[in-house]
Write a structure and sequence with these properties.
single chain; 4 helices
């Protein structure tokens, strides 16, 4: 989709993609020989929201964490949210 067609929508919300990320991260962590760092571009709140969502999904689906455990570890990152898929760029959501 073009940026104009997407409006304010972003994110890895297709469940299949989220599960593929979880599987890939699980494999990387199993094979790691050094620390693995999950980073986002500076000043990109959408990327931070995506990263928090994907990491939270991994912790819940693969590691068996509870939502409360994820919220405790992610802190304020756990409060991020996605815009509605039909939200327009020129109008902020309530």
């Amino acid at each position: 989709y073009t940026e104009a067609a997407s409006g304010r929508c972003f994110g890895p919300l297709e469940l299949g993609k989220v599960l593929r990320f979880c599987r890939a991260l699980s494999n990387r962590l199993a094979d790691r020989k050094r620390p693995l760092v999950l980073g986002t571009p500076p000043g990109d709140p959408n990327a931070r929201t995506n990263a928090a969502t994907l990491l939270g999904a991994y912790l819940i689906f693969i590691s068996g964490w509870t939502i409360d455990q994820v919220v405790e570890v992610l802190g304020t990152e756990a409060n991020r949210s996605f815009a509605c898929s039909w939200a327009r760029k020129d109008k902020l959501e309530p």
